[in-house]
Specification:
The complex is a heterodimer. Chain A is mainly alpha-helical. Helix content of chain A is 73%, strand content 5%. Chain A has a four-stranded mixed β-sheet with strand order 1-2-4-3, with helices on both faces. The radius of gyration of chain A is 24 Å and the shape is elongated. Helices cover 53% and strands 11% of the residues of chain B. The chains are: A mainly alpha, B mainly alpha. Chains A and B meet through α4, β3, α6, α7 and α8 of A and α1, α4, β3 and α5 of B.
Chain lengths: 295, 122
């Protein structure tokens, strides 16, 4: 019973629950808590599934007398468990390596092609008319890149808000949050994953950075910058994050963006999904296994 | 004494403006800074080499240096990554301020901005 329940929880937390949660908007009201919630869901899914494999493996060799097929199945299940975790670490290593090398290349190019600006040591200005604003995160080597087009498009306070937004990404290490979600996304087998957590995390860190910029320069300047930089439609019509700009604008429109209830609910659900499977299923089963082994 | 980063930019510009591979002495002359030491320029060229921005080729007993990619190629590589609208960069190497939206969304954004501005200006 335990392995089946754990497996069901694992599958539920990988597919239907994220899909459902992605449709709800209350998580955007407290982005920090929502980041924790999404991380917990993914972690709980991995724990539940490896728990399912482990408990099945143990049940095969404890509940009945040993036969060769039980031992063989036990060993292959353990091998699958090892493979799942190996895949996870392999994904983590690859994401880290790829990201580092892309950032390094970006940094080298930006340092050679962008002008240093007196306003901030990490700021580089590109001689381009297209409005561009982004950051290349890094522990001691971050760069904030804007183009001449950005500076001429934005007002002084809007420009300051953009810089504060990017600085907050760098300062609060939002890149680590995004990397963690990328690793989880890659670690899940294709049939068991949705894009929801990755897309949501990208929106949530933007909301957090907007909050920081808003605190320093007011919501009108952040909103103005958002309209100026995202609101100029491109002919190609390709979109990175559908709806991200509108979600950010909704939060900027909200005079009181902090919501205690949604934060508390998000933290509460995070705790439940992480702790409940362990306590309710694994512990009784483990004591049972322990008693079988010791008597 | 210019900082290392600025020096790398200047050296790269000298190489980009030249039509053929240059020796360290050529680069030093091209920079036109009397206070700059030969070894400093060599160090900078070395650093640019490890960054894969500069290629070194042997010419008799000396080395000649050439850009690994043209200025235009470097600019377009940078912009390609910077304007990655399709979001193919699943590693989140860069964090953008905003990506472009379609016409309907742009109008909705503008309406919301007007509302915020109207509220803030009594």
């Amino acid at each position: 019973m335990t392995p089946l329940l754990l497996g069901l929880i694992g599958v539920a937390l990988s597919l239907p629950v994220p899909a459902l949660l992605a449709k709800m908007t209350w998580t955007f009201r407290s982005p920090a808590a929502a980041v924790v919630l999404w991380q917990s869901l993914a972690l709980a899914a991995i724990l539940a599934m490896s728990g399912a494999a482990l408990s099945t493996a143990l049940w095969l060799v404890t509940d009945d007398e040993l036969t060769w097929w039980r031992v063989a199945l036990h060993l292959s299940l353990l091998a699958i468990g090892v493979l799942v975790w190996a895949r996870f670490w392999w994904a983590a290593w690859n994401v880290w390596r790829e990201t580092q090398s892309r950032r390094r290349r970006q940094r080298h190019l930006v340092d050679l092609l962008g002008e240093v600006d007196g306003m901030a040591p990490a700021l580089r200005v590109l001689q381009e008319e297209t409005p561009i604003a982004y950051c290349v995160p890094g522990r001691n080597s971050s760069r904030i890149v804007v183009s001449q087009g950005t500076i001429s498009t934005l007002s002084a306070t809007e420009y300051a808000a953009v810089l504060e937004h990017e600085r907050s990404h760098v300062r609060r290490r939002h890149d680590l949050v995004l990397e963690a979600f990328t690793v989880l996304h890659r670690a899940f087998p294709k049939v068991l994953r949705t894009d929801a957590p990755l897309v949501q995390s990208q929106i949530l860190v933007e909301l957090l950075a907007d909050d920081a910029a808003r605190k320093a320069h007011g919501e009108a300047s952040v909103a103005g910058a958002l309209v100026a930089l995202a609101g100029s439609p491109t002919p190609a019509g390709t979109m990175g994050l559908g709806g991200a700009a509108m979600v950010r604008m909704e939060r900027l429109r909200d005079p009181q963006p902090g919501h205690l209830t949604s934060a508390v609910s998000a933290y509460l659900i995070s705790a439940i999904v992480l702790v409940a499977p362990t306590v309710l299923l694994a512990i009784p089963w483990m004591t049972h296994a322990w008693m079988t082994l010791t008597t | 004494m210019p900082r290392l980063g600025e020096l790398e930019r200047s050296v790269m510009n000298v190489l980009w403006d030249a039509h053929s591979p240059l020796t360290v002495r050529d680069v030093l002359d091209g920079l036109g800074d009397r206070n700059l030491a030969y070894t400093t320029v060599m160090t900078v060229l070395d650093r640019l080499g490890t960054k894969e921005m500069v290629r070194r080729q042997r010419d008799g007993r000396a080395f000649r240096y050439a850009p690994a990619l043209t200025r235009d190629a470097a600019t377009s590589e940078l912009l390609h990554a910077a304007l990655d609208e399709a979001g193919t960069d699943r590693t989140a190497a860069l964090v953008h301020f905003a990506r472009s939206v379609d016409l309907a969304e742009a109008q909705a954004l503008r309406a919301a901005l007007d509302e915020i501005v109207a509220r803030n200006a009594p």
